[in-house]
Fold this sequence. Notes:
Largest sheet: 2 strands, antiparallel
Number of strands: 4
Number of helices: 0
Shape: elongated
Structural class: mainly beta
Amino acid sequence: MAESGDSPYIAPHCPQCGAPLPGGGEEVTCAHCGTYLIRRPAASGSGETFVQGIRLRPFSCVDTQGIGCEAFRLLIPAGWTFSGGVQWLLNNPAMP
């Protein structure tokens, strides 16, 4: 189903959670689940239209050495795992 107006992009529902996606643009983030999608224009003259993209999920890294708050947040591909974290250099307190 094509968007209304002159836009050649498709505005379906999120493939991750099924929520409706906002219209317009090549890149969109689902407001419901945080999935990041990259849209491609529909091929001219083709009867079938679909969105191709990569499923991303939000990841939050918590600083377990410090005060236990979120150190940073990333969008990583769904199915990937993250290893690592924040390491404080406690022998130099002026420049952790």
